[in-house]
Amino acid sequence: MSSSSHSLLTPFIQKESNMGWQNQGWLFSASLVVFWASVRSIRREEFFPFGPSAGDQLLESGDDQTFRLTLSKPVLFYDGSFDSLYINTNGFVATKEPLNESTYLGKLPPEFGAMAPLHGDLDTSDGVGKVYFRQDNSPDVLRQAAEHINRGFPEEDEVNPINTVVITWVDIASHKPQTRGDGRNTFQLVIASLETASYAIVLYARNGIQFTSTLVEDNGVVMHAGFSQGLVKGFFYSSQGNYYRTTTDDEASVRALAEETNSGLRGVWVYGIGTSPQFRNVVPGVVTDLPAETVDTQQHTDGQVKYSPAAEQIEINPLRYQPQNPEVVVVEDPEINVDGHPKLELFSYNLGSCANNRNKCSQFADCRDYASGFCCHCRPGYYGNGLQCVAEGKPQRMNGKLRGKVFVENSPSPVEFNGNDLHSYVVVNDGRSYVAISDIPTSVGPSLMPLLALSNVIGWVFALEQPGFRNGFSIIGGEFTRQAEVTFQPGNEKLIIRQEFEGTDELDHLVVSTTMDGRVPAVPPGSTVQIDPYTDVYQYDSNLITSSSTRYYTVTNPDGSVETRSYQCRETITFQSCQHDESLRDVTTQMLKVDQIFVLYDVNNNLLRYAMSNKIGDVNGENGGLENPCFTGRHGCDTNAVCRPDQGSQFTCQCASGFSGDGRRCYDIDECTENQQICGPNAICNNQPGTFRCECEDGYQFGSDGRTCIVDRPVDHCEDGTHTCDIPDRAQCSYTGGSSYICSCLPGFVGDGRICQDIDECQPGRCHQNAVCVNTQGSFLCQCLPGYSGNGVYCSSERTKTRCEAHRDNVLSTMEAHPRGARPPISQYIPECDENGNYLPMQCHGSTGYCWCVDRNGLEISGTRSAPSSRPMCIDHNTVTPTVGPWPRPDVIAPPPGTNLLFAQSGRIEHIPLEGYDMKKHDAKAVLHLPEKVIIGVAYDCVEKMVYWTEITSPSISKASMLGGEPTAVIRTDLESPEGITIDHLGRTMFWTDSMRDRIEVASLDGSQRRVLIDTDLVNPRAVIADPVSGNLYWSDWNRDAPKIETSHMDGSNRRVLVKDSLTLPNGLTYDSQSSLLCWADAGTHKMECMNPSRGDRSTVLEGIRYPFGMTSFGKTIYYTDWQRDAVVSVDRYAEKETDEFQPQKRTRPYGIAAAYPQCLSGQNYCSVNNGGCTHLCLATPNGRSCKCPDNAVAVGCKCK
C-alpha cells in the first residue's frame, strides 16, 4: 500500500488525547487497529458469516457425503472454468464428483481437482459436526473477501470480487478414534471470484485444529491442505496435473495453519487459484511476517486484557480497500482495552438520511430520519416494512416456481421439478390462504399432500393479526429467505425446503422461488390426508426468525385403513431490517395458529392444493377474552375490506384503500377517471385494482424524483444529417432514441463508424491456390486462373460437365436426321445453360413457345409456366449465394458493426450493442417500456428497422420502429398465448406459435392475410425460426410426453420431425444461415445442441446450462437468455464454452432474444420480387413458392389454392 492511500485512512482514526502513551512507546494510530488484529489468531466469530442465520445450506450428515452446488458465477481453478462444485464431508471441495472415499483417502494427490482446507477421514454422523455452504454476493461478504485478498497481496492491483462461495466445517470429528488426542476441528474455505480470476481464502480458528491426523486402513495419516489440479488429459494419455500442498507430512505443519499466515492475519491464508485466459500454478499471499512476541505480552487480569509497552513501532501494511463515504463512529470493544480506555474510534458506512434516500421507500410509505440513519414506514391504511407496503384488507397473491428433486420413500430415482408454477391467494381479512402447484406427477403427488411446510409460510406472511400482534409482512416485508428442515417419523426421511422471497412485482404480487430437495414417505395413490390443527411459535431476533413445531396427520388408505403419522418442521427466516427503528425490537415471540386445513391432490389435472386459516397472536394462546369477529375472521366483510373491531363483539367493515362501498360490498375506484390530474402533467394514468400507475408520455421521462415527468426533447441527428458518421457508402447512422445515435461501418469496412476503412479480405488462404483474390470496396472476388474452372474457392484443371450441360448434351445426342441437318424431336425441349454451365432461370420450349422458371437443378417451379405470349419473372437461383465470393469462416468475422441484441423482460425490451462478438454491457439499456405487459417473443425486421413482439397479458402481436415511434398492435384477436415469433424479411411475412391454441400461423407484416399454417399434432409449440433464403420453417414443441423439433417448408408442406429423442424442454431455437446449423437449448436436459437439418448430424455444444429460454446466433457465437440466472449468456460454439454473461439492472426473467443487424444479410427467395406474382400470401419453399389464401379468403376475394 502506498503512503498516499495510508494517509486516506488515517483521518478516520481518532487518537486519544492522552499523548503520554506515545512517551511509553505506544503507537496508537491507524496502525493500532491493524496491529492488534494481526498479532492474535482469528476467532470463529470473525469467520465469514455461516450457519442458518447466514442463509447456509447444510450438508447431509454422514461419513462421506457430497453435494453438487450449481454456481451462478463460474469459479476459475488452474486453467479451467467450473459452473458447479462438489462439497464433501472430508474437508475438501472438488471440481467433479468424487468417487467413494476409499479411492482417494491416503492416496494423494487425487485424480479429481480439489481445494482442501484440511482433508482427512471426517464424520458428521453424531449430529454435532456440521458442514455449511452457500453462494453469496452480498456487499458485506464481498467487502470482507476483498480485505483479506488485498491484505495478502499488497503490491498487486486492488481486487474487488463479484461472487463468493462460503463453505464452513464446524466441530468436525474424525471418523475413527484419533491416533493422537481427541477433539474437533473448525475451519472455513471462501472462494472469491472476479470475471477473470478466482481466489481461495482459508480460515483456521484459534483452537480450531484439535487433531492433526486420521486413521486410514488402521494407519495414522497426517491431514492434508492444498490444491490439486487432478488428472490432465494429454494427446495419448492422462497425467497428474499441478499439485500445490500447503502442509507437509509433519503434524506440526497442520497445527501451524492456525498459528501462521500468508495474509498478515494469523490463521488466514489467501491464494490465487485460477486466472483466465492463462494460469500456471497456485500463487500464495506474500505477507507472512507477524509480531508474535507482542501477543505473548498479554496479561489477563480480572477479565481485562492488558498490554506491556512495545519497544518500537511495528510497520504493518494497512488495507487499501476502503468503504465509500466513511464517517467517524464510536465502537466499544471489550477486547480492545488499553489502560482503562475501552473506546476506540473507527469508521463505518454513512447510512444517509431521507433527504437523498426518500425514493427507496414504497410510494405508500414515509421516510423518517433517526440519529443513526433513516427508516421507511408505511402510511395509515397500509402495512409492511416501509420498502414494500400493501393496502390493509386487500387480498394478496403470490406467484413463483418450484424446483428440486424429491425421492419417494425407497425409490432410487428422484422426481425432478423444473419450474412448476406455484400460485397463492390470501383473503387477508380472515387469514384464509390458498396454494396451488401445477404439473405434479402422480408418482409423487399423493406423497406431498402432508407437506404443509411447502406452503404455510404464505399464511404466516399474511396471517390474521390478533390485537397487539403483527404478521410477517408487517414486520419484514416481502424480501427474505426461508429455509425449512422437515423430518418425517418414524422413517426419519428428511427434506429441505428453501424459498427466496423477492419482493413484489409490477402487479404488487409477491414473488417467490422455491427449491425442494430430499426424501418423503410414500402415501398410496387414492389416499386422503387430514392434517390436524397446530401452532407454531416464532422467535424474533435481529434479522433472524426461527420456529419449530410437530405436525400430525392422518392417512386414510384406499382400502379404508387409517395411519397416524407426524413430522417435525424447523424453520429459519433471514431478512434485512432497518436497524435504526427500535420499535422492531419489541417483537420477541408470537404464535401462529393454523386450523381448518384442507389438502388435495387433483390427479386429473396434476394439481396439488392446500388451504388453511392462519392467525398470529399471543404465545400463550390468550386473547384477553376477546371474541370479536375481526379476530376470528367471521365478520362477513368484503374480501377487499378491513374489519375494524369495536366494543365487545361489535365491528365495522371499511373498504381497503383504492376501493369504495359500505365494507360489505367494495368496488374498485378508478383513480384515473376521478382525478385526471392525479399523475401530473405529461403523464398517463393506468388504473389497477385498488391502485393506479403513472407512466410518462412519449417524449418525456421520469425525473430524479421518480415521479415527475420532465421533457425529453429528442433530436434525430440521422434524419437531420447532423451526425458525425462516415459517408453512406461506408457507414450507417442508426437513431436509438432521445438524441442518441450509433455510427456503424457497413459490412466489408472497419472502424468506429465515424471513420471506416475498406477491409482487404484477400488474405492468404481466402481463395483456392489456383485462384486470384481481387479486393473490392466492402467485399472481394475469387476467380480461377486461366486453365482452371470452379467458383474460386475450389478450382480444378479438369473441366467436368455441369448438370445443365450434361442434360443439354444428352438431348442433342438424340437428334433426328433432317435434310437441313440434325434436329431434335418437335416435342423435345433443349435446356439452356449460361457461360458457367448453370441452368438459366427461365427455360423455354423452342417449338411451343411456353416458358417456365426452374431451380438450380433445372426442375420446373410449380405455377410459373406462362403462355407463349408472355414471359414469367424468374429469380436467378445462382445469385442466392453472393457472387462477390464465399462468406468468410464464422470464426474470423464478427457480426456487422452496429449489430444489437434485443431481448424481452416483463414490461420492457432492452438492447445490448455488440462489438465483434462481445456484448458491450455498459451500453445496454431499455429501448421500449411496456408496463403491465408480459413480453415473450421478439423478432426484428431488418428492412424497415422494426421490432415485433408477442405478449400474453392481453394477447397480441405488436411492432415499433427502432428509429422512434409509438408501438402499434398488429394482431389482437383470436390469440390466447402467442410465444415464438419470426420474420421473413424477404417475403414480408411473420410466423408465430400459440401454445394455448396449439397452432402455427402466418400473416403479412401489417397483420393482414392471416392464415393457420399448422394446427395438428401440436401440444406446446414455443420457438419458431424461419430460414427465408432456403424456404424452410423450424419450431420446437415442449410437449412433456413427446417433446420434438420439427420442420416444414414455409407454406406448411413437407412437414417432418427432425429431433424427438433425448429432449425434455426444448425452449430456445436458432438457425445460422452461414453454417446451416439449427441449434436448440433444452431446459430439461440442460444441454445446448446443434445439427445440420439436411444431414441430421446432431452434436452437443454445451452441457450444464441452467434454464435457457430464448436463443439467437451469428457465426460462431450463440446468445441465449437464462431464467435462473436472469441473464443473457454468450457461447462460443467452436470452443464449446460460455464466454460472457450480462445481467440487466432489472432482475426479472428474460424471455425472447433476437439479433438486429444494421443491414439485412445477403439472400433472396421467390417471394422477394413482386410478392412472387401472388395476389395474397406468398410463402417461399426450397424450390419456389406457394400462393396461398388467408383464412378469410371469401371476404378478401382470394381464389388461389
Automatic annotation (TrEMBL):
Keywords assigned by UniProt, alphabetized: Basement membrane, Calcium, Cell adhesion, Disulfide bond, EGF-like domain, Extracellular matrix, Glycoprotein, Repeat, Secreted, Signal
Organism listed in the record: Nothobranchius furzeri (Turquoise killifish)
Major localization listed first in the record, in broad terms: secreted
Protein name: Nidogen 1a
Compartments where located: Secreted, Extracellular space, Extracellular matrix, Basement membrane
Gene this protein is translated from: NID1
Alphabetized CDD domains for the sequence: EGF (cd00053), EGF_CA (cd00054), nidG2 (cd00255), TY (cd00191)
Domain Thyroglobulin type-1: 801-874
SUPFAM superfamilies xrefs: GFP-like, Growth factor receptor domain, Thyroglobulin type-1 domain, YWTD domain
Residues covered by the EGF-like domain: 350-390, 626-667, 668-710, 714-757, 758-796
Superkingdom, taxonomy of origin: Eukaryota
Segments forming domain NIDO: 117-276
